[in-house]
Design brief:
Elements: H1 14-20, H2 26-41, E1 57-62, E2 67-74, E3 77-80, E4 90-94, H3 96-103, H4 109-114, E5 118-122, H5 124-136
Parallel strand pairs: 1-4
Antiparallel strand pairs: 1-2, 2-3, 4-5
């Protein structure tokens, strides 16, 4: 395996999104919330700053898969929201490859945003807060799990 693996930019075929939108969306919210709560438990997220997220509604859309996840932060935990009754305070929309590049720290949110590969809507101040909070996180290197990933 090559030690300098780079995630390519890609877009899933259009039929994937049309099928994905017809499927139940709750598994996406459960998976995302489980990951965020695991990051909390691992002390990767700055607990002192999480109060700013209290009762805020977030939406993450994966455009080319047709999937979306809605969640909130309440009483110290991220929680799925299956039937939101209001517009999200902050929403992100991007193709799967953009999210994977963010997770691998191959791209930063600013670059994706300015290249129009990541759309952020809603409360601008909250968006900047979340971006800065995530930028400050010391994620364990993916290379510890998958030797082919390097940043």
């Amino acid at each position: 395996m090559n030690g300098n693996f780079t995630l390519p930019k890609f877009k899933l075929p259009n039929f994937v999104a049309s099928l994905g939108r017809k499927l139940p969306q709750w598994p996406h919210a459960l998976a995302l919330v489980a990951g965020l709560n695991a990051a909390l438990k691992m002390k990767l997220l700055p607990e002192s700053e999480l109060g700013t997220l209290e009762d805020k509604l977030f939406l993450v859309r994966v455009l080319d898969s047709g999937g979306e996840a809605c969640f909130t932060f309440r009483n110290g935990l991220f929680r799925p929201v299956f039937r939101p009754e209001r517009e999200p305070d902050l929403a992100f929309a991007a193709n799967l490859s953009a999210y994977l590049q963010l997770l691998a720290r191959q791209e930063d949110p600013d670059t994706l945003f300015f290249n129009r590969e990541l759309a952020i809507t809603g409360d601008t101040e909250l968006g900047l807060f979340v971006k800065n909070m995530l930028d400050a996180v010391e994620w364990p290197p993916l290379s510890a799990r998958w030797p082919s990933f390097r940043h």
